[in-house]
Amino acid sequence: MKLVVISDTHLPRGARCLPDACLRELERADLILHTGDFVMAAVLDELREFAPVEGVHGNMDEPELRVALPGRRVVEVAGARIGMVHDGGSRAGREARLAASFPGCDAVVYGHTHVPQVERHGEVWILNPGSPTERRRAPTRALLVLEVSKGAVAPQLVAILDTNTRSY
Question: What is the DSSP string of 6-43?
Fold first, then answer.
């Protein structure tokens, strides 16, 4: 299965929308994981037009999303367990803390920092897709593609270099 992991879309904000490179990945997704800060519930509905969406709420999400989505969850996909949370906490000890917070998971995805991370902590992937819309301190905007098969998770960070956007 092909999973697209995004976070911190912060939509809508002015005329901003998802970049073309992000939309192309979403069009090919079997499942979308969003680690919070959609901001508006309409963004979740629009993402569901591409593929099923599993998500958690973030600190910037409107009350409707905070009611509809949990703060943390575990998703089972193709034999793999993937933990999801928006804020991974302070940088010091983050990887160990996330791995311990989601026992039995093959990967943990989080957001909030806007800084991509693809790292192993023991047997667990610790993953942050960055943001497809706001790079902040990251070198580029980004997202993650996860190929999941028979319990194995293979992550690929996708840098978003284009500035083209379109309505979706």
Answer: E----B-STT---BHHHHHHHHT-SEEEE-S--BSHHH
- How many C-beta atoms lie closer than 10 Å to residue 108's C-beta? 28
The 10s digit of each residue's pLDDT in 109-161 is 999 999 999 999 999 999 999 999 998 889 899 999 999 999 999 999 999 98
Burial 64-84 (b: 16+ CB within 10 A, else e): ebeeebeebeebebbebbbbb
Residue 98: count other Cβ atoms within 10 Å of its Cβ.
23
Whole-number Å distance between alpha carbons of 133 and 8: 8
Question: Tens of pLDDT along 73-97?
Answer: 999 999 999 999 999 999 999 999 9
Q: Is the pTM here over 0.90, yes or no?
A: yes
CB 21 within 8 A of CB 162: yes
pLDDT at position 164 is 59
Closest among 163, 154, 155 to 135, alpha carbons compared: 163
